[in-house]
TrEMBL record:
Taxonomic lineage from the root: Eukaryota, Viridiplantae, Streptophyta, Embryophyta, Tracheophyta
Domain of life where this protein originates: Eukaryota
Record Pfam families: DUF1005
Low complexity composition bias: residue spans: 352-371
The protein's name in its UniProt record: Formin-like protein 18
Source species of the chain: Cannabis sativa (Hemp)
Location of region: Disordered: 352-374
Amino acid sequence: MDPCPFIRILIGDLSIKFPVALKPSFSGVHPSTSPCFCKIKLKNFPVQFATIPLVPQVSRTSSCSSSSCSVPTPDANSQSLAASFNLNKTHIDGFAGKPLVLKISVYTGRRGSTCGFNAAKLVGKVSVPLDLKKAESRPFFFQNGWVDMGDNNSSTNKGSSSQLHLCVRAEPDPRFVFQFDGEPECSPQVFQVQGNVKQPVFTCKFGFRSSSDLKNSSMSEPSTSRNWLPSLKTNKDNYSKERKGWSITIHDLSGSPVAVASMVTPFVASPGSDRVSRSNPGAWLILRPGEGTWKPWGRLEAWRERCGSDSVGYKFELLSDTSTPAATLASSAVNANSGGKFTIDVTSSISPANSPNSSCDFGSGSRPGSRSGSGSGSDFGFALPCHMSYRGFVMSSTVEGLGKRSRPEVEVGVQHVTCTEDAAAFVAVAAAMDLSMDACRLFSKKLPKELTQLRQ
């Protein structure tokens, strides 16, 4: 099946400039010496926040020659991506024929409140109208440059020379969408989804194995081993403080294994605690077939965060078969109770060579075009060079909170799928993250029966 249509809205290259104060004021701090941040709002999406670097502006009344007064340029930090919004077909259809406006409110001071009072002061607002039809087939810039800021709720900012520099771009970002037909530990089928149409593409097999199984170089599915079970039964204390040996194998429709996620580092309770600590996380190895053997492709670590909100932290690294160090593609956390999304998105910055006086490129790597046929019997048909770097949106998967039934939904950017094995590897990552939520469950709590039935 074809991929599903998505549109990404990218906001970045932020800078702000104020007029220089002609007289020093002791009643407060001039905005150009205060930290600035902004709220970025888009209808039906959560509000996002970003900091804004400052650019000093030369006063019009100050004396300087044209040769000595240079045009302000943003700080180097302004080249970073500030926010992004991902619109699926439901969003796109819902906004069709309706006005859609990106709203940015700029503040000085600190976020939050101090002693019950709002510590931030509104500087101004900027609105950018969006017409999604212009970005259905190619990237489109809705804003790229300096704009005057105004505050609709106050007349004090009207005519102000305070300005915000920003770049707003929308681009098509088609993705393959997969959905588990059940919880990963129940060995479900995986469907490719497009609208209301579902087509089976993979099957999963969950089981337990010993570390020696990973040393098996055969491309056949590693056997489920119970050699380590007697030792667990004879030492209940170790069993209650350790979870290990979980594995899930992804098969194509012919029954051939095309990806494996195997727990290689046990999830162990830290001393004097009933949780997996960040200093000693559990880990999964994501394996792909290659040259008649299993080859490590990625590593997923997970742990239970202790401070702040109760969440499960994770880090995903891309491994190399050379001496090149592993590259971290994702590092974040998912709320342990309400769940969230596991995301690999390496859209991080605009090209360093760009400035507010030039066009910008967020380096997302999205490609609306494609070449058919992957040369591997794949039905996905979006072939790219096999040694391509991971750029832009890579993948995301839904993650349910503890105690809730999960059916992960996985989105993968088409530029990262050249064959069936590529898609299977991302499905294996999604399964490993879902299982990590249970592996990071407090050791004082019971595991679901599907994760304990082989141990009895």
